[in-house]
Amino acid sequence: MTNMELSAVKAELKTLVHSMLEEGILDSQFTQLQALQDESNPNFVAEVVTLFINDAQKIINHLNNCMSQEVIDFSEMDPYVHQIKGSSSSIGARNVKLACIDLQQASDAKNKEMCLQALNKISREYCRLEVKLHAIVQLQNTIFTMETNQRRQVGRYGAMSTQRR
User: Fold this and answer.
1) What CATH topology corresponds to 3-159?
2) Cβ–Cβ < 8 Å for 83, 97
3) Are 91 and 79 in contact, with CB atoms under 8 Å apart?
4) Counting beta carbons within 10 angstroms of the beta carbon of residue 53, is it exposed (0 to 12), middle (13 to 18) or buried (19 or more)?
5) Considering the entire predicted model, what is its pTM?
6) Contact by Cβ (8 Å): 25, 128
7) Cβ–Cβ contacts within 10 Å for residue 54, how many?
8) pLDDT category, 162, cuts 50, 70, 90?
9) Which residues contact residue 95 at a Cβ distance below 8 angstroms, ignoring those fewer than 6 apart?
């Protein structure tokens, strides 16, 4: 794999993230998350995003279960609403976070209809986000693999050139 191929994949990732920022799907928190990734932790973003995807889906399922009960226990929903709102905020999932704020307000008001609307919005926004986050993880993994292979080749050729001397 060439430097040009690696540059093309990095450009694709940058374009995808930029479009998600422009659409309001992500906010600047995601770029701050990306800034935390370095050579000592080259898979940081992919790991954090994967954890978010797994946790968010479980929480949304739990909230849907809560809302499907005959009598809604709004106090049972509260920690889950806070959890998904916090994790959405921490990775920069702007639209999901905003929908979580709506759900929190509806839950505080004990308004089942508004809760259902907000939860549907969370689900829609999450599905939209999840597809794009999977694309980010795939690109990150491709970059990681390409860079690892390049380092191995450089190491191999570097060792060969020192042996020839």
Assistant:
1) Four Helix Bundle (Hemerythrin (Met), subunit A) (1.20.120)
2) no
3) no
4) middle
5) 0.86
6) yes
7) 10
8) very low
9) 24, 25, 125, 128, 129
